[in-house]
């Protein structure tokens, strides 16, 4: 059963009772993580709790019984149970497919429910194919938030905490949110904690005081220097990020987000949009547009798609190796910066 976009997000909040397993996936793993949290909340009895066991590729590959014994075991306290699996690609596809097919063959075959979280999955993915074909498993394909969705999510989180925010402050906060869902959630949580017992609505000054950390600045500087063609500045920014302990995968995610934003800009320009910068997320303000437009000229859509391919290859290389992802990321960003330098 395949559901996409809003239908997928709605299902995560209110799943069908007959569905025992869910595969949630998308370009942004944070979306799958949020969907999993929504499912667990929906499945948790109002007067009880949920027993959640989290597994990953490595733990299941080393001991497949962790998956199957976990699905079959009944909680000693009688609480409902969920096995939450975080996977990358098709590393344990055969085991997950087996679990999905057994659970689909007979209702209530397993004692526990199953949630599988993944990043981007191609149509040929074995896990995706199994989830789409199953009747008692939901396959949720999640897409990046639209501006209205982000605003609603921020308002909902703040309202639940009894926090008010002025309209201008809300617009500024949303515009500064990072594209990756997990990072955005962290910023929303930080704002909520800041505003607890504030005694007044959040204003623009509060947002400006919270928005820019050194890591945010260095990460933006690294991505900007990479796409502008400034190799020396790239390495300097990466050195600062390494000292701060920022992971290579996080840097890749930021590079991926900015590449997608530039592709979106090309699309809006091709459609004849008179002010494409303000339609992007976060927006490119008028005083920033000349520099951003110059960057777009270095990177036509075809070359940006090549960057996306190289990001995917670098991530696979980083995750398949036993060492740090940082050298792989550094090589890739240097390569992109050199290419932009030559284009200039």
UniProtKB/TrEMBL annotation:
Transmembrane segments: none annotated. Its EC number is 2.7.7.7. The keyword Transferase applies. It comes from the Bacteria. Keywords: DNA replication, DNA-directed DNA polymerase, Nucleotidyltransferase, Transferase. GO terms for molecular function: DNA binding; DNA-directed DNA polymerase activity. The keyword Cytoplasm does not apply. It catalyses: DNA(n) + a 2'-deoxyribonucleoside 5'-triphosphate = DNA(n+1) + diphosphate. One of its GO terms (cellular component) is DNA polymerase III complex. One of its GO terms (biological process) is DNA-templated DNA replication. InterPro entries: DNA_pol3_clamp-load_cplx_C (IPR008921), DNA_polIII_delta (IPR005790), P-loop_NTPase (IPR027417). Belongs to the DNA polymerase HolA subunit family. NCBIfam families: holA (TIGR01128). This is DNA-directed DNA polymerase. It comes from Hyphomonas beringensis. The lineage of its organism: Bacteria, Pseudomonadati, Pseudomonadota, Alphaproteobacteria, Hyphomonadales.
């Amino acid at each position: 059963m395949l559901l996409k976009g809003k239908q997928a997000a709605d299902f995560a909040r209110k799943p069908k009772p007959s569905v025992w397993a869910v595969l949630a996936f998308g370009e942004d793993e944070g979306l799958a993580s949020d969907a999993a949290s929504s499912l667990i909340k929906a499945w948790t009895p109002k007067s009880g709790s949920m027993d959640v066991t989290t597994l990953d590729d490595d733990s299941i590959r080393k001991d497949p019984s962790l998956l199957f014994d976990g699905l079959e075991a009944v909680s000693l306290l009688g609480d409902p149970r969920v096995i939450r699996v975080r996977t990358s690609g098709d590393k344990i596809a055969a085991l997950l497919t087996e679990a999905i097919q057994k659970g689909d063959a007979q209702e209530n075959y397993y004692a526990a429910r199953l949630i599988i979280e993944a990043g981007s999955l191609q149509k040929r993915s074995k896990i995706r194919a199994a989830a789409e074909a199953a009747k008692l498993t939901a396959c949720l394909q999640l897409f990046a938030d639209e501006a209205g969705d982000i605003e609603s999510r921020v308002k909902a989180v703040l309202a639940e905490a009894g926090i008010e925010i002025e309209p201008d402050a809300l617009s500024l906060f949303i515009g500064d949110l990072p594209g990756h869902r997990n990072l955005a959630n962290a910023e929303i949580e930080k704002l909520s904690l800041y505003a607890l017992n504030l005694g007044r609505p959040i204003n623009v000054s509060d947002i400006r005081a919270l928005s820019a950390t050194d890591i945010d600045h260095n990460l933006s500087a690294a991505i900007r220097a990479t796409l502008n063609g400034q190799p020396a500045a790239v390495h300097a920014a990466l050195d600062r990020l390494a000292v701060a302990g920022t992971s290579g995968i996080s840097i890749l995610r930021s590079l991926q987000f900015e590449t997608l934003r530039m592709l979106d800009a090309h699309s809006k320009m091709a459609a004849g949009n008179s002010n494409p910068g303000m339609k992007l997320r976060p927006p490119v303000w008028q005083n920033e547009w000349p520099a951003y437009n110059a960057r777009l000229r270095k990177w036509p859509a075809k070359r940006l798609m090549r960057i996306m391919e190289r990001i995917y290859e670098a991530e696979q290389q980083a995750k398949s190796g036993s060492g740090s992802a940082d050298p792989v990321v550094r090589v890739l960003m240097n390569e992109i910066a050199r290419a932009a330098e030559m284009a200039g």
